[in-house]
Amino acid sequence: MSSSSLEEHHAAKRAFSTSPTLTTSSDGDGSERDSLLLDSTSRSGSHSKRRRSTFDWLLGVTFLVIVALIWTFASLLVQYIFHNLSFQGPFFLTYVGISLFSVNLPLWYASQVLFPRAKAWFKGLPTNGKLSHRELLRRSGAQASREIFRISAIISPLWFIANFTYNESLNLTSVSSSTIVSSTSTVFTFLLSVVALKEPFVWMKLAGVVLCMAGNISTIFNDEDADGGTDHVFGDLVALFAAFMYGVYTTAIRQLIPNEESVSISLFFGFIGIINMVCLLPIVLAFHYSSIESLSGLSLEILVLIGIKGLF
């Protein structure tokens, strides 16, 4: 074999022996690029999740502040009605406020039935009753309207008792004391959730419960020392019972409606309003005619303010 042939032979062997290395190096570079790309995507996704989590937290805090402001405004309005306008009617005030929940029913019907029918009519689609009924059930969630009504019937009396006792406490004690004591509802909600819903027991939450109870006990004794009587203390105890009932109905709602997306919340509250309106009307009339809670002092101004309070 000539020298040129030998050199070509060795060159071919070197090319053959190094080609896998080159291929492997190329594959390694590709794998590294894929790894970097996946890592970059993962970091981008986690960063997006953190931003979304922060936004949700800020949104939640904003809503909490708004609710606190509305709660304080409503409490001051109730005391104004009781003391400045001399209308001692906590039962009637609660009755009207909860009955106004029924405005959710026509709004729900319009959004789930009338608007889809109108939209279908403009598009030239069929709008027969059977199709509308199936659409209504689908949009109201996994549970049927009858099941939502059953849940509302269970929650309605609990809701009324909690709000009635809180309004009564505003008639007997100060807004600050009533609000502070009513915040104990978080304590009862935590305890009932652990017992009824089998939620995990957390020691930090227990510490918060103890501090909350200590603050409420201090508020009650401070009211007793400041006024030298039992009116404010009794009002604080009524507020404490209202807090317990808030915990009861909150836990009951979470027990009966574990997934809010499966139930139309507007339909749920609308049923609470209509059940309250129909079932408690005889009691309102009986209280009026027996002078237990007379409505003779009811004026247009008071009725408007009660309506505003009910809507908030």
UniProtKB/TrEMBL annotation:
Keywords of the record: Membrane, Transmembrane, Transmembrane helix
Chain segments annotated as transmembrane: 57-82, 88-109, 148-166, 172-195, 202-221, 233-253, 265-289
Top-level lineage group: Eukaryota
Recorded topology in the membrane: Multi-pass membrane protein
Region: Disordered, residue numbers: 1-48
InterPro entries per the UniProt record, alphabetical: EamA_dom, EmrE-like
Organism: Phytophthora megakarya
Ranges of Polar residues composition bias in the record: 16-28
Protein's UniProt keywords contain Transmembrane helix: yes
Record's subcellular location: Membrane
Coiled-coil zones: none
Name of the featured protein: Drug/Metabolite Transporter
Cleavable signal peptide: none
Pfam families documented for this protein: EamA
Feature: compositional bias, Basic and acidic residues: 1-10
GO cellular component, one term: membrane
Lineage: Eukaryota, Sar, Stramenopiles, Oomycota, Peronosporomycetes
